[in-house]
């Protein structure tokens, strides 16, 4: 891509971000840490939605298993199940935060660009510059008081984010190449809104891509430390029951994009592949605050309608495994009925299909319906719901029934909600407005629980 082609003849650059920090190197080196450096930041640093009774901890990856292989022809993503060491109590449906680390090669390239390869592991700290013009300049809470350039770039800062105009404008000041300077300044201007729209918002160029385009741009580490966003944990649903192996393990399931995979999923992929029983790799996780989207012993007597698309099945695998374990423990107890509606691209893309069939065989699952978007009708979950409309609404309206929807996208959840609305309309002879009002009420009553991932 020729960056010169994106420079307008007239433009006014955005006001650039300014640097208020400096990096001071002190004597000594540190061996690169595998655990997340943000753990060294102390209590001032909060982890989003973290449960108060537990700290983020480095845990072993005990196993990594491919559940679904990627398939280009059907655009099926690879899906992997990770078994992790469990160090806290949980219930199926709960979620954990996983701390990502940036890709090692990306970090190495950036250290080279910043001319810091020689000092990559040298001990350093951040300081507010003398005569700082900004009144309330602060040190970033997500960077440890004593650290190294490698640590900062690997564990603390996001490199894959959408660059804002003021940042682009500031980056222009870090290159001595006229074309790059023009490109960055221009892209930050109001006049180049169309270019910003097409390159950044549509083509999806991230901060790291901009640096790749502008090979002479060398921002300082202090500037990056101050202005790059914090590398944040990503939530994952627990896909196992704590009763399965004495609460020693927990499982999560993730899908991986084939083209430009995300930060956390590519980290998990690499760690999972390198991990072995003799040399287990570790990952930093913490339990997130629970909500109503869970299945506990108290739910054994109630009914569930479980609706999922793709990897959205993950929490329900935990629900059903828990139900199975609870029933093993207390076989005399009456259990409720569970119905599962699941959609995937193809039959092989249904996670743990055999297990689901076995659960249906032993009546743990009273109803199991599957559909395939690359198959024959019905292709979407909402079509199956509509086919079962009368039964489904009757079952849903029982006081002890709760409906759970988990989909890896807001659009899918919306389509499912519309499908459910149509079922209510038809079965209860309601108008569209009345049906959507009823859906709202069901949500408020906690009878309709949703987990939206993205
Ligand atoms: C409550 C909750 C529970 C979740 N549970 C799970 C779970 O159990 N399993 C799971 O796989 N994900 C789950 N997610 C999504 C997960 O948190 C991440 O967003 C996802 O894994 C991508 O993270 P990343 O760091 O690899 O990608 P990022 O680097 O953050 O992503 C870069 C871009 O790529 C897109 N992207 C990356 N990977 C994927 C993918 N596999 N599919 C579609 N788009 C993608 C992102 O949308 C983003 O726009 C959950 C999210 C929430 C809010």
CATH topology type of the largest domain: NADPH-cytochrome p450 Reductase, Chain A, domain 3
> Which hetero compounds are present in the coordinates?
flavin-adenine dinucleotide
What structural category arises from helix and sheet content?
alpha/beta
CATH class of the largest domain: Mainly Alpha
Q: What is the 3D form?
A: globular
Order of helices and strands: EEEEHEHHHHHHEEHEEHEHEHHEHHE
Report the CATH architecture of the largest domain: Up-down Bundle
Distance between the termini: 31 Å
* Uncertain spans: none
Helix percentage = 25-40%
What strand order characterises the main sheet? 6-4-8-2-3-7
Provide a descriptive summary of the structure in words.
The chain is of the alpha/beta class and 454 residues long. The chain folds into three domains: 3-42 and 101-227, NADPH-cytochrome p450 Reductase, Chain A, domain 3, CATH 1.20.990; 57-100 and 235-287, Translation factors (Elongation Factor Tu (Ef-tu), domain 3); 297-452, Nucleotide-binding domain of ferredoxin-NADP reductase (FNR) module (Rossmann fold, 3-Layer(aba) Sandwich). Helices cover 32% and strands 20% of the residues. The chain is built from 14 helices and 13 strands. The strands form three sheets. Strands 6-4-8-2-3-7 form a six-stranded antiparallel beta sheet. Helix 3 (165-172) packs antiparallel against helix 4, helix 11 (381-387) packs parallel to helix 13 (410-428) and helix 12 packs across helix 13. The longest helix is centred in the C-terminal third of the chain and has 19 residues, at 410-428. Keywords: FAD, Flavoprotein, Oxidoreductase. Its EC number is 1.16.1.8. Its cofactor is FAD. It comes from Drosophila yakuba.
